Amino acid sequence: MTRATRARWLAGTTAAVVVLLVAVFTALRNQPVADGPAQVSASAAVAGATAASSIAARGPAPAGVDADRLAVGRSAYDRLKCATCHSIAGRGNPASPLDGVGSKLDRQALHDFTTGTGTAQGPLGTGLAKRKARALDDPDLGALIDYLAHLK
């Protein structure tokens, strides 16, 4: 084997091992929790999307938020890739768990930390606040806030 061939083989093998390790780590990190909240199908999320998108994120949570609205909020959580930085019931990045966040923060604080605005700008820092600002344009932001507020 020439030196160049050996280098290409080593690079290819290294890349394959890295991809395999990432797949294994992801599978182990994101295993479903038996006692965790039920996973909601995408069709259930779509069913409540029209009603959910018209409700504002700020203000008091609607009394008795229904399962369809929570499904829309969970769908927004998934679509915005919140699990990249956060976890719920052991699924996602364990560095910043959101379990119980609904009993720790009011709706305004949830809105600020979800969108990187208001009082959250200081603690989050400029870079993270800018990344979170994409949630401001999401039509289901209100449902996402309801979903987070429901995590008690």
Folded structure, characterized:
There is one protein chain. With 152 residues, the protein is mainly alpha-helical. The protein folds into 2 domains: 1-31; 41-150. 56% of the residues lie in helices and 5% in strands. The chain has 9 helices and 3 strands. The chain has helices at 3-29, 42-47, 49-53, 67-79, 101-104, 107-115, 121-124, 126-132, 141-150; strands at 86-88, 91-92, 96-97. Strands 2-1-3 form a 3-stranded mixed sheet, with no helix packed on it. Strand 1 (86-88) and strand 2 (91-92) form a beta hairpin. It is elongated.
> Main β-sheet, in a few words?
3 strands, mixed
Radius of gyration computed on alpha carbons: 19 Å
Helix segment count? Answer: 9
SS-derived structural category: mainly alpha
- Name the poorly predicted regions: 33-61
Strand order of the largest sheet: 2-1-3
Number of strands: 3
The helix/strand order is: HHHHEEEHHHHH
> What would the principal axes of the Cα set say about the shape?
elongated
Helix content: 55-70%
Give the DSSP E fraction (strand runs of 2 or more residues). Answer: under 5%
The pLDDT mean sits at 80
User: What's the domain count?
Assistant: 2
- How many angstroms separate the termini? 61 Å
